[in-house]
Amino acid sequence: MGVLVIGSVAFDTIKTPLARSKNILGGSASYSSVSASFFSPVNLVAVVGNDFPDEYRQLFKDRKVDLTGLSVKPGKTFSWEGEYGWDFNDPKTIATHLNVFADFNPRIPREYKNSEYLFLANIDPQIQAAVLKQLTKPKLVICDTMNYWIENKRNQLLRLLKKVDIFLLNESEAKQLTGENNLIKMAKAIIKLGPKTIIIKRGENGVLLFSGDSVFCIPAFLLESVFDPTGAGDTFAGGLIGYLSKCKTFNEANLRKAITYGSIMASFAVESFSLDKLKSIRNRDIERRYKKFKQQISF
Ligand code: AMP
After folding, report:
1. Contact 239, 264 (CB under 8 A)
2. Buried b / exposed e across 252-284, counting CB within 10 Å, b at 16+?
3. All structural domains of the chain
4. pLDDT tens-digit series, residues 138-177
5. Whose CA is nearest to atom 15 of ligand 1?
6. CB-based contacts of 99: which residues, under 8 Å, 6+ apart?
7. Gap between the Cα atoms of 44 and 106, Å rounded
8. What is the pTM of this model?
9. Which residues' Cβ are closer than 6 Å to ligand 1?
């Protein structure tokens, strides 16, 4: 059955203190679908312009990501330009061009309507809601967002959150959404908005999981050099939903393992620009790193 992913497929222009790159493949749905594909079959719903190259399309096909739901519309593909400082934390957005996403009205292919595992990757919450509405019986709905949408579509996001099981966001976005400064207070405030489980991403400081009364925290996998953090959150989410789609229940133990796999997937994404590293790894590389990480964090 697999995982259904909706989100942005983008051309990214990235500047870090170490390197820069122009119009490379990016987008929340690109990173998350490729990441999830290491665990489960993935169906992608998104839109690109007629400037989207075959080479990028091929990358998804190589990972067996189904592109039946990838629409091509006249116009330009969504593009985003971001710049990181030395801390490699939240990037400064230089430009967001919605282009073909501005009036995208997603139509879910008939064969995807029974999808049980849905990842609403970062995109306009109205588009996320439109996709969720078309599914007949989702078992698990995970949602991500970004400062851009908290600022520009807050009410639509709040409406959507009532129907979401797991909500992921960065620490700065949790602060922006709730007005709180303390992580526990942020999580408590977000739980009141609807989702039962909250995951707060903290970049190289790792991830926090709040579920019921329990809290789980793990650091990021230690790397000697981070090349470009773009897509780390989306890749994390892909690993998370990919792993959970193979579990019969979403209990605490499985959630913790899923978060650990998500963190491992993110550690690969940040080692190169775009999806360059992700497209070159194999499942055995993931397992090797997972084992090493487990040793590093257990006591
Ligand atoms: P992250 O995992 O948070 O680093 O996500 C980075 C990706 O988000 C980039 O590849 C961008 O193309 C994409 N992105 C940036 N801004 C937006 C936005 N407003 N809506 C959807 N996707 C975005």
Report:
1. yes
2. eeebebbbbbbbbbbbbbbbebbbbbbbebeee
3. 3-297 (3.40.1190.20)
4. 999 999 999 999 999 999 999 999 999 999 999 999 999 9
5. 80
6. 49, 75, 76, 77, 78, 79
7. 11
8. 0.97
9. 8, 10, 12, 26-28, 80, 96, 122-123, 146, 148, 230-234
